[in-house]
Specification:
The chain is built from 9 helices and 3 strands. By secondary structure, it is mainly alpha-helical.
C-alpha cells in the first residue's frame, strides 16, 4: 500500500505531453512578457521622445527663432537702425542744409567774395595800366603841381605854346611823348606840365595803349586867346557899342543878333579854310 502511495509511475507518452504543455506555457509566458515590454516601450519611450521633440526640441527652436532671434533682429532694424537713420536725415541733415539764417549768411558771403574778387581784378588792372605819370601824380600834391616851374623858362609863354600845339590836333589829341620831344623837355618835366595844365582846365588827358605801353593823349579843352583873333572885329569900332547888351531884344543892339558880327565870323571862317 505504501509502495502504491509513494510512487506512481508515469508512462512516457504522458510525460512527453506534460513537457510539451509546459513548453507551450513557458512560450506563452515569454510572449506575454515581450508584449508587456513592447507596451512599456511604446508608452514610455516613444511618447517621451515625441514629447521631447514637440515640447523641448522643436518648440524651443521655434520659440528661439520666433521670440528671440527673428523678433530681436526686426526690432533692432525697425526700432533702432532704421528710425535712427531717418531721424538723422530728417532732424540733422535737412535742417542744416537750408535754414533762413544759413541762406542769408551764404548770400552775404557770396556777395563779399564777389566784391573782393572785383576789387582784386580792378587793382590788378590799375597796376597793369599804371604809368610813370601816375607815379608822379601820387608823388606831388595838387599845390606842387599847380605851382610847378621849370628853371629859366617863362611858364606863361610855355603854357601858351603847349596849348597852341595841342589845339592844332583838335579832338584827335597828341601823344604827350611826341609833344615833349617837340618842346625838348624830359618826360618828368613834361608830365608835371601836363598835370599842371589839366588842373587849370586847359587840357584833358586820355589814357591809351600805345605799342604795348600805357601812356596819355593830350586834348585841348580851352584854346589860348590870341590878339590876332581880334583883328577886324566890328566890336572895336562899333558906333553903338555902349548900348549893346546881351539882354537887349531886337531891334536893340545885342551880340546875339548882330549882323556885323555874323559877317565878320563868316569872313574869318573862310580864311581858315
Amino acid at each position: 500500500m505504501k509502495n502504491k502511495m509513494a510512487k506512481k509511475e508515469i508512462d512516457p507518452e504522458t510525460a512527453n505531453q506534460i513537457k510539451k504543455e509546459l513548453a507551450e506555457l513557458r512560450a506563452q509566458l515569454e510572449n506575454q512578457k515581450k508584449s508587456k515590454k513592447k507596451a512599456a516601450k511604446t508608452k514610455e519611450e516613444k511618447p517621451k521622445k515625441k514629447a521631447a521633440k514637440t515640447k523641448e526640441e522643436k518648440p524651443k527652436k521655434k520659440a528661439a527663432k520666433t521670440k528671440e532671434e527673428k523678433p530681436k533682429k526686426k526690432a533692432a532694424k525697425t526700432k533702432e537702425e532704421k528710425p535712427k537713420k531717418k531721424a538723422a536725415k530728417t532732424k540733422e541733415e535737412k535742417p542744416k542744409k537750408k535754414t533762413k539764417a544759413q541762406m542769408a549768411q551764404e548770400r552775404k558771403d557770396a556777395k563779399a567774395q564777389k566784391e573782393k574778387e572785383e576789387a582784386e581784378a580792378k587793382a590788378a588792372k590799375e597796376a597793369a595800366e599804371r604809368t610813370p605819370e601816375d607815379d608822379l601824380e601820387d608823388e606831388f600834391s595838387d599845390e606842387q603841381i599847380r605851382n610847378f616851374q621849370i628853371e629859366k623858362m617863362d611858364m606863361d609863354k610855355l603854357t601858351n605854346k603847349v596849348c597852341e600845339i595841342i589845339a592844332e590836333f583838335e579832338d584827335k589829341g597828341v601823344l604827350q611823348s611826341e609833344l615833349w620831344k617837340k618842346l625838348k623837355l624830359n618826360s618828368r618835366d613834361g608830365s608835371r606840365l601836363a598835370l599842371r595844365l589839366e588842373r587849370r582846365g586847359l587840357i584833358s588827358r586820355e589814357k591809351i595803349l600805345q605799342k604795348g605801353r600805357w601812356t596819355y593823349k593830350l586834348i585841348i579843352e580851352q584854346a589860348p586867346i590870341k590878339l590876332e583873333s581880334l583883328v577886324d572885329s566890328p566890336c572895336l569900332t562899333c558906333p553903338v557899342e555902349q548900348k549893346c547888351d546881351f539882354e537887349n531884344a531886337y531891334p536893340e543892339p545885342s551880340p546875339l543878333h548882330c549882323q556885323l558880327i555874323e559877317n565878320w565870323v563868316a569872313v574869318e571862317f573862310k580864311k581858315k579854310k
